[in-house]
Automatic annotation (TrEMBL):
Native source species: Gracilibacillus salitolerans
Pfam family, one: ABC_tran
GO molecular function: ATP binding; ATP hydrolysis activity
Protein name, as recorded: ATP-binding cassette domain-containing protein
Domain ABC transporter: 2-230
Origin superkingdom: Bacteria
Keyword set, alphabetical order: ATP-binding, Nucleotide-binding, Transport
SMART domains linked to this entry: AAA
InterPro entries according to UniProt: AAA+_ATPase, ABC_transporter-like_ATP-bd, ABC_transporter-like_CS, ABC_transporter_ATP-binding, P-loop_NTPase
The keyword Lipoprotein is assigned to this record: no
Amino acid sequence: MINVKDVTYRYPGETNNTIHDISFEVAKGEIFGFLGPSGAGKSTTQKILIGILKGYQGNVHINQQELHQLNADYYEHIGVGFEFPNFYQKFTGLENLDFFSKLYKSETQNPQELLEKVGLADAANVRFSHYSKGMKMRLNFCRVLLNNPDILFLDEPTSGLDPANAKNLRELILLEKEKGKTVILTTHNMDTADKICDRVAFMVDGEIALIDQPKQLKVAYGEKALQVEYRCPSGIKQELFSLKTLHNNQQFQHILAQHEILTMHTQEASLEDIFMKVTGRKLL
């Protein structure tokens, strides 16, 4: 679906490159996440793929066609959600979607139904200027889906959302994946990346440090141990057991037989822990 080879980019007037010789592939139906702190090059990479930034070095192929050679029809097949939504302030949410739907040649989705999906049906006739940050982000996602795109580009899609709406948005993204849609998202929210991304790329200073599946990363970098929390006569205790010898560990067997087990957890590393270990940098 998307093939990027040896891409470098420098903004006009700058002396240093923002993107340094990056390469990656994204398969059809995959959710691929760029993770990194602000200034890492995530959004710049996405803007290159969208076609906003020209003049890059290297090769970018979308469906085996060089991005430079694609015409305006490309925008009929992609949906773009920037981190800072740009809508007409005096239009209502519904009026904004109606307006943007007229920009496409192909048939678009029903705006009212999209608003219902993101919980904005009751705010359909409210002016955009009166929307909260979270409401603006949800309307932004409606616009992404408006033309029923094959590729979704999402920049910090859960920014400003409360836990319930963030969960709903993640579920809607996964529904698009089930339809065979390809999703490229940029975020520094490791929870979002962990829950929905098939693969993630760690970006720092315009370079890709690592690409892998979140689960594989957590297994590879996690401690192969089981933490057991249990209640005994003297109170609540915790013990850590190696997974390699767990099957014949007498103390572990004794705890299971004699005490009330409160929690048991394998010691997987979080994506944030792995990011810091691999890159030496924090996300924020």
